[in-house]
Design goal:
This protein has one domain. 16% of the residues are buried. The protein is an all-alpha fold. It is globular and about 35 Å long. 62% of the residues lie in helices and 0% in strands.
Length: 91
């Protein structure tokens, strides 16, 4: 038995998703940039529940943070910042 390190054709297919709303477009942009297109529903949920201002602020900060300062992943940092900025705005 040999192991094939090549991904199956199903894994390499591009995401077939056509955003309709601005929220959908923003979620897709973030998911693509963070390399997490498979988690698009999660990004859509976040974009629906937070303001675009908070989402963009967190996204831009997550992108410009140097890799050596990120403990888990850039996407984890993004979610942390969305929550942080969302709570700051409520106070």
């Amino acid at each position: 038995m040999t192991l094939d390190n090549n991904p199956s054709p199903k894994e390499t297919r591009p995401l077939k998703y056509h955003p309709v709303t601005d929220c959908d477009k923003l979620a897709l942009e973030i998911a693509k940039e963070l390399g997490e297109e498979k988690r698009l529903p999660l990004y859509r949920m976040v974009c629906e529940n937070r303001s675009e201002e908070i989402i963009r602020k967190a996204f831009n900060q997550a992108l410009k943070t140097p890799a050596e300062k990120i403990k888990k992943s850039r996407s984890a940092l993004f979610f942390y910042l969305v929550n942080k900025y969302g709570h700051e705005k409520q106070d």
